[in-house]
Amino acid sequence: MNKYIDFYFDFISPYSYLAHKKIINLNLRNIFNYKAILLGGLHNLAEVTPPAFNERKMKNMKDDCILISKKNKILFKWNEKFPINSLYLMRGFLIIDDNKKSKFIDLCFDAYWKDNLDISIEKNIQKILSDCKINFAFFEKGIKEQKIKDELKDLTNEAFKLGIFGAPTFLVNNKLFWGQDRLEYAIDESKN
């Protein structure tokens, strides 16, 4: 049995948010290993046109997310600033202490997909960091370090090499499960 399920995510992804909330509701967070990727970079590598740039797909995605959130009793509001550049937050996830990552994930996802905040602007990032007790100067310096830039790029490239083309994607027992609607399949696979 594989104890952990790798969860490839980006804060920009509404479906990653919904999957995250489902994981919390199932009380299974402890079996998931959150793996930061830059979804825009992954889409470029995979030559995927994101729904945000296709009017019909975008409308369907909005309606779909609302449908899923209601069905699963998840507070959700389509963000008026979608899409944003999540680069700094995804890099930030890599520099913060492991004991603060869960709260950081919760606050970033909630700010963007529940509270309709633009989490790419400094004042909102500062609020999230303050609530996590993370020093803003430390964060700002860390996300500019070449090592962190390379790490996020490497994680995104690694995801692509594994066959991942979108978020959320779950990896367990060398099997990929793409989409929030495949979460239960990944959990079942982790029991094998």
Entry summary:
This protein has 192 residues and is an alpha+beta fold. The chain has helices at 14-25, 39-46, 55-71, 87-95, 98-113, 122-131, 136-142, 146-161, 183-190; strands at residues 5-9, 32-36, 169-172, 175-178. It has one domain (5-190): Glutaredoxin, CATH 3.40.30.10.
List key phrases describing it.
Glutaredoxin; 9 helices; alpha+beta; 4-stranded mixed sheet; 192 residues
Tell me about this structure.
This protein is α+β, with helices and mostly antiparallel strands. It has helices at residues 14-25, 39-46, 55-71, 87-95, 98-113, 122-131, 136-142, 146-161, 183-190, and strands spanning 5-9, 32-36, 169-172, 175-178. It has a single domain, classed as Glutaredoxin. The chain contains nine helices and four strands. A four-stranded mixed β-sheet has the order 2-1-3-4, with helices on both faces. Strand 1 (5-9), helix 1 and strand 2 (32-36) form a beta-alpha-beta unit. The protein starts with a strand and ends with a helix.
CATH superfamily: Glutaredoxin
Number of helices: 9
Biggest pleated sheet: 4 strands, mixed
Reported by name, the CATH topology is Glutaredoxin
Extract low-pLDDT stretches. none
Strand portion, in percent?
Answer: 5-15%
| Chain-averaged pLDDT | 95
Protein topology:
Elements: E1 5-9, H1 14-25, E2 32-36, H2 39-46, H3 55-71, H4 87-95, H5 98-113, H6 122-131, H7 136-142, H8 146-161, E3 169-172, E4 175-178, H9 183-190
Parallel strand pairs: 1-2
Antiparallel strand pairs: 1-3, 3-4
